[in-house]
Amino acid sequence: MSLWVDKYRPTNLSQLDYHSSVSARLSALSTSGDFPHLLVYGPSGAGKKTRVLSILNELFGSGVNKMKIDVRTFTTSTNKKLEFNIVSSSYHLEITPSDLGNNDRVVIQDLLKEIASTEQVDFSTGKHRFKVIIINEADSLSKDAQAALRRTMEKYSRNIRLILISNTTSNIIPPIKSRTLLIRIPAPSVNDIVQVLNKLSSKQEIPLPESETERVETLRKIAESSERNLRRALLLIEALSMQNEKLTPTTPMIQLDWESVIKKLAFNINRERNVSRISQSRSTLYELLSHCIPARIILKKLTFELIQLVNFKAKSQIIEIAAIFDERLSLGSKAIYHLEGFVAKSMVAIEDSV
Amino acid sequence: MSSAIFGNRKESSKSTEVQERLLPWVEKYRPKNLDEISAQDHAVTVLKKTLQSANLPHMLFYGPPGTGKTSTILALTKELYGPELSKSRVLELNASDERGISIVREKIKNFARLSVSNPTKSDLEKYPCPPYKIIILDEADSMTSDAQSALRRTMETYSSVTRFCLICNYITRIIDPLASRCSKFRFRPLDNQDALVRLQYIEREENIKLQENVLEEVLKIAGGDLRKAITYLQSATRLHSTLSSSSLSNDFVVQDPDSSNPNSEITVQSIREISGSVPDDILQNLINVAESKIFDDIFKVVNDSVSEGWSAIEIVNQLHDELIFDDKLSSDQKNSISKILFETDARLTNGTDEHLQLLNLITQLSYIL
Questions:
Q1: Which of B60, B249, B307, B364 could form a disulfide with B182 if both were Cys (CB 3.0 to 4.6 A apart)?
Q2: Which residues belong to any copy of the AAA+ ATPase domain (chain A) (predicted)?
């Protein structure tokens, strides 16, 4: 039994529920036979991957759904062996080079060149003679790896098309941007999500209230607490309907454990600003980090919780501090220093403002 | 290599035509000889002289992207050797090839060491065929400094049979000993007139329907980068031609306002959408909330623009254009604004969280405006 998110994932462009103009563009592109490199960007849970897979479906037919996972080994220049997972069908490949950290350049150079310089031999099944390579999390590709992409994209455009998926275009170097067609996928609006959830409830049995208004209200509440993230909304409604016998507008939303921990931490920081609180928050932060919550997400969430509690002057100061520590987090290597530093600094900021 | 295979294969003319059509215009309209290169008069005149005198120094081309550095050297090799001979005489390496120190020691050295191959008679009649090979190191600024130092002696020892051409964006990343061995050519960003001529040529060749001012907008967004300009133009054309043809055959409801245009001319809006630049109203909205100084509004607007997927770096760039040229602001204000913009830009490049940085940027701006 698969999750609803996967079970009801649209498989072709005409099934997509929102952003119909983007879908129209994509379907026009995929039918034209002249398919460019794409850079698909947008916040998480907006449906980037779904759209990309739908394009593939449109391009090559259902053959793309027969996927397999290969483990490939690459050797770096320092003779280090790297193992790397590749999801592939006979028409496309999907890689997440950021798994390899700094060695992603090797994969880009070796793998892409190997695929790019061999031509598709079998013309009988596919309409197109190129292979599509999907690169996930393209924004975390190192600059070296991106530089390696530059010429490959031009030189082998006969045999491969790249689809880069990323959350932002900020970390993509300009030469790549100028070689791709940028497709922006905005997050779905709350109304869009309600619509999708409503459609889901017709396919799947969900214990929603009978009356139309209450039903819409319940869905709206779920949609709002998902912060315009469709994946989250779908997971939330699935979890809710497992836990509760009946869903009503008053059903309490599930709050994730780590979120409530951070909320409590923010509350404590605001209430009590002294050294012993810092050392107490250290253990909380360690706890969060050891549960694999990324430090950046902790920082972001903590900032947003804090600015809800404090007055205007402290708000802007805390944001400024957060921006500084955010940078330090991404440059430094030990997260706890920066998180603690942020806690201490924001205590000072709050102290100053009262 | 693959092009060689394709050249020999007997294909029907129709399929080569299709191939031709599928080629990116950047490749299709790459200048074929030195005369076709726009704007870089200085470099072109010097290089033309070498065509006559058959002597060539080591060269270092530098300049911003899309100014024709690679095109120039490719055109030069074509004019010097012709298509057949250049296979054995030219080695092109770029950042997509492994270029560590081992490659410099082996591959480059081996190629540099080879004696010059003999040109065929027919080549000799048509091309000058000077007695040296050319090694092109494209994107040389991404080579490590170790690899660069390994080149030093190689360049000198084999200078009787080999010339190097280094191509880079930032001359500061090339180590001094290498730079001093080359004659340098600076490639200026194309001014709009030169670029416009080229775009108009492509427009005629490809038979594109454009609305007024589209080419000017393309050039404005591209900012002197001809490759970018051509890519945008091609993407826009592709999108529009396919939209118009598919809306006839498909019963897809096309809600896009600019695609409902029956002639499907390319509009200024579609160029902007393709380039990923932020629409004016969103930008203006951000500036307005910054001026209003109401924190909750700022929070909300920033939240919205992040979830709409607009790229923070693009917002920073466009805010810069918008605010720095605003005559209503004092120099002091502009001073502080550019400082914040610069900081945000640096942080974003370090891979920080867009949402936090953008929020910080706008709240800081609200103090200044």
A1: B60
A2: 34-197
